[in-house]
Amino acid sequence: MMRRRLLSGLITVSLIAKPMADYVQPAYALIVFDPSNYAQNVLTAARALEQINNQIQSLQNQATMLQNMARNLQRLDFSSVGQLTGSLHRIDGLMDQASGLSFDLGKLQDQWRSQYPESYDATIKVSDVASAARERWQTAMQAFRQTMGVQSQIVENVRADGDLLADLVNRSQGAAGALQASQATNQLMALSTKQQMQIQTLLATQFRAEAEDAARKAQSEEAAREMTKRFLGTGSAYPGN
Predict the structure, then answer these.
(1) Which of 32, 124, 126, 169 minimizes the number of CB atoms within 10 Å of its CB?
(2) pLDDT of 102-154, one tens digit each?
(3) Which residues form a coiled coil (predicted)?
(4) Burial class (CB in 10 A: 0-12, 13-18, 19+), 197
């Protein structure tokens, strides 16, 4: 009887102790939350993320700078030098075809002394004076013809320059970088310089023709006076003198 009661009591204690043991956790399994440590970790992570973002932004800025440098160094795939020099060469060809008085200073002085003498020799023939006068007239006509030829060539060049000017302006406005804009601007300046050189050449031919014609007229007057003087002589052969 005593044993039965002791066994019953042990069973009862074991039944009560088991559920309580289920609720009791070992000491090493407890989780401890530290707010200050958590905040410090969050702040550290935020700073690290900010540094990464700054590095990314710096790399992006460097990439943009390199792209701009490459764009600024991009060459203009167009050159008007050939067209400009070709126009000037055509005008130079017309200048080289000039007959009569030369544009070369040394040759001009020799030709001037020959065609425009300061005085006539007493033995010169009337036919020689007339022949020289005709040669001067032909030279003056050739000078005017050359002037008109240069004028025609310049007008043709100016018409072609209109399309070239529009093309260069469009390329300058649409330049991808500083180098392209600079090269287009340089070609615009070259076009302006070429046009100024054309005007100077035209003025040179025009003034030359006008000067030559004026000299021809003056020389013809001097030759006429000389021939009149020879024809009249001293006047001693006529009565009343």
Answers:
(1) 32
(2) 777 788 888 888 888 877 777 778 788 888 888 888 888 888 888 888 888 88
(3) 42-76
(4) middle
